Amino acid sequence: QVQLVESGGGLVQPGGSLRLSCAASRPIFRFKSMGWYRQAPGKERELVAVSGSYTNYADSVKGRFTISRDNANNTVYLQMNSLKPEDAAVYYCNAEIYPGGMYWGKGTLVTVAS
């Protein structure tokens, strides 16, 4: 079992920045990958960024968002800059572990509005 706890969401104006954090209950250096997904009302959950043997971003966030990992503190971050109204969503942390298994946090809400 892996518990994931997100934090850092909130209300931000367009063009602003937020940093999301996801704290894991187990050493993340052993994980296959960690990532961030988001789900806006009425839409499907979508990948935002993933960090494992490779790092990948959704086209819509490339150049604006950065995923990073702090293995010493078992935490993964998502730095979000130049936020747009369309970035508003519930952001979920995700972990894939060996030999198999996927875990989710409960999500943190990001609102982008003037």
Low-confidence parts: none
Topology as a string of helices (H) and strands (E): EEEEEEEEEEE
Q: How many DSSP-defined strands?
A: 11
**Radius of gyration over alpha carbons?**
13 Å
Strand-residue proportion: over 45%
Question: Structural class given helices, strands, pairing?
Answer: mainly beta
The amount of helix comes to: under 10%
The average pLDDT value, as a whole number, equals: 96
Tally of helical runs = 0
Question: How is the main sheet built?
Answer: 7 strands, mixed
The shape is: globular
Q: What is the terminal-to-terminal distance?
A: 40 Å
Describe this structure in words.
The protein is mainly β and 114 residues long. Helix content is 0%, strand content 51%. It is built from no helices and eleven strands. The strands form two sheets. Strands 2, 4, 5, 6, 9, 10 and 11 form a seven-stranded mixed beta sheet that branches. Strands 1-3-8-7 form a four-stranded antiparallel beta sheet, with no helix packed on it. Strand 5 and strand 6 form a beta hairpin.
Salient structural properties:
globular, four-stranded antiparallel beta sheet, single chain, mainly beta, 114 residues, seven-stranded mixed beta sheet
